[in-house]
Structure formats: C-alpha cells, structure tokens
Design goal:
The chain has 111 residues and is mainly alpha-helical. The chain contains 4 helices and 2 strands; from the N terminus they run ββαααα. The model has no long low-confidence stretch (mean pLDDT 80).
C-alpha cells in the first residue's frame, strides 16, 4: 500500500504580512502599542482632543511609512546585517579581500 503525505512547502519561508517581512511586523506592532499608550496618556492628562488626534495620526502615518520603507530597503535580514556591520570597530573592517588573498603559505616556517 502506498501512503499519501502532505508536503509543507512553506517551512523555511519568512513570515510575511502585506509586504512586511519578519521583524518589521514586530516593529510595527510595538510602534502601534506605543502610539496607543501615548494617546491614552495625553487623553488622561486633559490635552484637547483636536490636538491629540492630528498628532497621533501624523506619528502613526510616519511609523507606517518608515517601517514599510525599511522593509523594502533591507528585506528580511538586511537590517540586522546592516546594524551588525555598523557595530564593528574600524580596525576590524576590511574594504577588500586583498589582505587575505595576498598571504602565501611558506613550507619551512609553517605559516
């Protein structure tokens, strides 16, 4: 007898939601929670509603614009790679591979 198995084709695919990939979904969610808490804090502190709403709407649209721009510019893992590269000290960075390709193996010295 032959058995029929389902193949899950999306195992290694990154999470995607409306064009946002991976960690950008979390960035957007955290930003929206911060906007909600900001709205609540301003409302409780008796700031007029006609001041709060345009401020929150402007900050929210800026948040959406920035997160979608980062997602489109860097892709799934690009932002993490970019921040890791920026975090390296200057004396570890190499602009070319010539340092490594110019090394020669010497038989007698063991180098």
């Amino acid at each position: 007898m032959s058995s029929v198995y389902q193949i899950n084709k999306g195992v290694n695919k990154p999470i995607e939601f409306r064009g946002l990939y991976g960690q950008y979904i979390a960035y957007l969610a955290v930003g929206l929670v911060v906007l909600l808490l900001t709205f609540v804090a301003l409302y409780i502190s008796n700031v007029p509603l006609y001041v709060i709403l345009p401020t929150i709407l402007a900050l929210g649209s800026g948040l959406f614009f920035c997160v979608f721009r980062l997602s489109k510019r860097f892709g799934v893992h690009g932002l993490l790679k970019w921040t890791a590269k920026r975090g390296l000290p200057k004396y570890i960075r190499f602009s070319s591979r010539r340092v490594f390709t110019a090394l020669k193996y010497h038989r007698g010295t063991g180098l």
